[in-house]
């Protein structure tokens, strides 16, 4: 009778009975293994990221140190290329650069600019009598005297041999002549290792509008020549 009753049921009725009596309960269980796997992967990524960060930081520090060393070496090289190795003051290259810079400033601001060339008198006799080493020490001492007795705005360098150049910005010719005579007297009164009186001759010039750098220092050079021919230990002013 039950079988007959079931046989008379249609598909919808059968499905309704199944849904009523054959219900399935789904019970979810937390997957701790999957959690540990995810945590492990995250930990590996964090460790690798930290190691990479330390590697990059070390590399950046080394690059920064290398750049600093390069900048220091560059400054030292520039200093060496513009410094006279004997006297420690500016060399001819640096004097040219400084003189050009001051001429540009003079043209722009219409300020006076003076230059003086200094040559030690009878320097060859010092080398012949006491040797070149003594001559070198005399030049080094002369550089010290110039550096200690010029104004902060002035610039001194070794022009070549026993000649020095002093660049004097914003200095009228009259003031330039006073400064040159003071330096000349200071040299004559200084005690050099030769135990002899050392003197120097000066040729000075004031910049003229439109003048080239070469024409400027050449006028001072001609004045220096006149000082040497006129008896030495004197100051001659360029025309």
From TrEMBL:
Cofactor: Mg(2+)
PROSITE patterns: GGDEF (PS50887)
EC number(s) stated in the UniProt entry for this protein: 2.7.7.65
Coiled-coil ranges from the UniProt annotation: 56-83
Spans traversing the lipid bilayer: 34-53
Domain GGDEF: start-end pairs: 111-239
Top-level taxon of origin: Bacteria
Gene3D superfamilies in the record: 3.30.70.270
Keyword line: Coiled coil, Membrane, Transmembrane, Transmembrane helix
One Pfam family it belongs to: GGDEF
Catalytic reactions of this protein: 2 GTP = 3',3'-c-di-GMP + 2 diphosphate
Keyword Nucleus: no
Gene Ontology molecular-function annotations: diguanylate cyclase activity
Keyword Membrane carried by entry: yes
Record's protein name: diguanylate cyclase
Species for this entry: Neiella marina
